[in-house]
Amino acid sequence: MTMAVAKIKSPIWNGRDPKKIAIGIADFRLMNSTHIQADILYRDKDGMKVFDHKYTMRCDIARSYPLKYEKGTPIRIIPLNDFMVDGVPNPDSRETVVIDEAGG
């Protein structure tokens, strides 16, 4: 298993509904790895990290999301709820494989 890490400055809020929060991952980050891990760097007004978890997804699943072009770069827009959080899949997610410590 190879893991690419994407540093995300801020999520895409899509209003106040937490189920609509998404992130954009550049398509090229999904090409040479089996999994992607999103590290969301966003902090609130008090300097606290808001998304303090490991968000992971298989790259083949991430590549199935729609593309948006940002300054000519293809970006996959992926709802945050569709990621595994700290290795545990969301029951409503497309992601169904749990990454174990042995890398399986």
Summarize the SSE layout with pairings.
Blueprint: E1 3-8, E2 22-26, E3 35-40, E4 55-58, H1 59-62, E5 67-70, E6 73-79, E7 84-85
Parallel strand pairs: 1-3
Antiparallel strand pairs: 2-6, 3-4, 4-7, 5-6
Explain what the structure shows.
This protein is mainly β and 104 residues long. It has one domain. It is 4% helix and 33% strand. It is built from one helix and seven strands; from the N terminus they run E-E-E-E-H-E-E-E. The strands form two sheets. The chain has a four-stranded mixed β-sheet. Strands 2-6-5 form a three-stranded antiparallel β-sheet, with no helix packed on it. Strand 5 and strand 6 form a beta hairpin. The longest helix is centred in the middle third of the chain and has 4 residues. It is globular, with a radius of gyration of 13 Å. The termini are close together.
Features:
104 residues, mainly beta, four-stranded mixed β-sheet, three-stranded antiparallel β-sheet, globular, disordered C terminus
Number of helices: 1
Percent of residues in helical segments?
under 10%
Number of strands: 7
Ranges where pLDDT stays below 50 over 5 or more residues in a row are 97-104
User: β content, as a range?
Assistant: 25-35%
C-alpha end-to-end distance: 7 Å
Mean pLDDT: 86
Total domain modules = 1
Query: Which series of helices and strands comes N to C?
Result: EEEEHEEE
Order the strands across the largest sheet as they lie in space. Answer: 1-3-4-7
Rough shape?
Answer: globular
Structural class estimated from helices and strands: mainly beta
- Specify Rg, calculated over alpha carbons: 13 Å
Q: In this structure, how is the largest beta sheet organized?
A: 4 strands, mixed
